[in-house]
């Protein structure tokens, strides 16, 4: 049985995991689906490792950002990805990208060249380049589509008007900022930090609301469930913790990974959570029980994962060259799990 959340303080969370009473109907249904749809295919995308993958809101396109200073966009056609275009212009690595939350034609890239670029897939051109103060490493688009937040290596987060491309606000933090995200209601802004904390600001006021000690070590990534019920964090302690959005308490944690958790993604229905690290597998958990639903085998560490917004398809990218001497293995591939075994 699960421990009641009221009995848990943030500090005790990292040592606790839920145990379910048995597989749920949802888990059995998804496992049955994956038994016939467990194929992973890889698609050439870049000339160097891929740092970030993300789906457009309608699920028709997948974008990837790479160390080769470019972004690529693929069309999803039945059971394969077909490269549509390559997007060049950055002078340094594209470390993260994301799509407009409701416009499937726009995406934005964050680069170490101290700029962000907004792109339109209809024209395949850069709409605008916004100069920032530092080397950018993370980026997110507000749920209402009006603001883009970008964080740099100096722990400065810049808020940019998505329409006018002008600076709305800029915040210098005194802690190591890792990943950033708005909540689904667009009224709070979350930052994970190097001290294992989740820092919460009001939005748009950007006033400190709360800091939660979520993990005993570096809190690396954060993702919100599309239904608005939960958010998850991943940490250097190799744990994934699941949090109730309204109560801001940890409801369970997942402990099947052995290395720092780099990346997280919720499925479109909010019922599956994919997490990955340097372990040579991606863990897929059932959110409501914490149980292992599936495991995706990888040959190297995984940098980024992203569930399709409508289907049980998982895009991901690995360090293709890690520990391998096989020169035939190409760097810079994007991978897609959940395809029919006979495809």
UniProtKB/TrEMBL annotation:
It is found in: Nucleus speckle. The keyword Nucleus applies. Its main location: nucleus. GO terms for molecular function: RNA binding. Keywords: Acetylation, mRNA processing, mRNA splicing, mRNA transport, Nucleus, Repeat, RNA-binding, Transport, WD repeat. Coiled coil: none annotated. GO terms for biological process: mRNA export from nucleus; mRNA processing; RNA splicing. WD repeats lie at residues 43-84, 87-129, 212-246. SUPFAM superfamilies: WD40 repeat-like. InterPro entries: Tex1/THOC3, WD40/YVTN_repeat-like_dom_sf, WD40_PAC1, WD40_repeat_dom_sf, WD40_rpt. It holds the Pfam family Beta-prop_THOC3. It comes from the Eukaryota. GO terms for cellular component: nuclear speck; THO complex part of transcription export complex. Component of the THO subcomplex, which is composed of THOC1, THOC2, THOC3, THOC5, THOC6 and THOC7. The THO subcomplex interacts with DDX39B to form the THO-DDX39B complex which multimerizes into a 28-subunit tetrameric assembly. Component of the transcription/export (TREX) complex at least composed of ALYREF/THOC4, DDX39B, SARNP/CIP29, CHTOP and the THO subcomplex; in the complex interacts with THOC2. TREX seems to have a dynamic structure involving ATP-dependent remodeling. Belongs to the THOC3 family. Component of the THO subcomplex of the TREX complex which is thought to couple mRNA transcription, processing and nuclear export, and which specifically associates with spliced mRNA and not with unspliced pre-mRNA. Required for efficient export of polyadenylated RNA and spliced mRNA. The THOC1-THOC2-THOC3 core complex alone is sufficient to bind export factor NXF1-NXT1 and promote ATPase activity of DDX39B. This is THO complex subunit 3. It comes from Myotis lucifugus. The gene is LOC102433950.
């Amino acid at each position: 049985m699960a421990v009641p959340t009221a009995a848990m303080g943030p500090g005790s969370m990292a040592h606790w995991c839920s145990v379910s009473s048995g597989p749920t109907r949802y888990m059995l249904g998804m496992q049955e689906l994956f038994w016939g749809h467990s194929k992973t295919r890889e698609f050439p995308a870049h000339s160097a490792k891929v740092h970030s993958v993300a789906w457009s809101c309608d699920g028709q396109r997948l974008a990837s950002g790479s160390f080769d200073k470019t972004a690529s966009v693929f069309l999803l056609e039945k059971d394969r990805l077909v490269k549509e275009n390559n997007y060049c212009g950055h002078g340094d690595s594209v470390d993260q990208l994301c799509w407009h939350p409701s416009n499937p034609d726009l995406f934005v890239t964050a680069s170490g060249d101290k700029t962000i670029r907004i792109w339109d897939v209809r024209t395949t051109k850069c709409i605008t380049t916004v100069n920032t103060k530092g080397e950018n490493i993370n980026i997110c688009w507000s749920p209402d589509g009006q603001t883009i937040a970008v964080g740099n290596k100096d722990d400065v987060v810049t808020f940019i008007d998505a329409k006018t491309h002008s600076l709305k606000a800029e915040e210098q933090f005194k802690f190591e900022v890792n990943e950033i995200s708005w909540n689904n209601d667009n009224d709070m802004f979350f930052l994970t930090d190097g001290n294992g904390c989740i820092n919460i600001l009001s939005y748009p006021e950007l006033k400190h609301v709360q800091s939660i000690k979520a993990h005993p070590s570096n809190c690396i990534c954060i993702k919100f469930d599309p239904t608005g019920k939960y958010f998850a964090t991943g940490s250097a302690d190799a744990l994934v913790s699941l949090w109730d959005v309204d109560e801001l308490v940890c409801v369970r944690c997942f402990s099947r990974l052995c290395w720092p958790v780099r990346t997280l993604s919720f499925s479109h229905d909010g019922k599956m959570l994919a997490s990955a690290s340097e372990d040579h597998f991606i863990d897929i958990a059932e959110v409501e029980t914490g149980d292992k639903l599936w495991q995706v085998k990888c040959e190297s560490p995984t940098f980024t994962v992203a569930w399709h917004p409508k289907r049980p398809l998982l895009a991901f990218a690995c360090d293709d060259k890690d520990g391998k001497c096989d020169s035939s293995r190409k760097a810079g591939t994007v991978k897609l799990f959940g395809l029919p075994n006979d495809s």
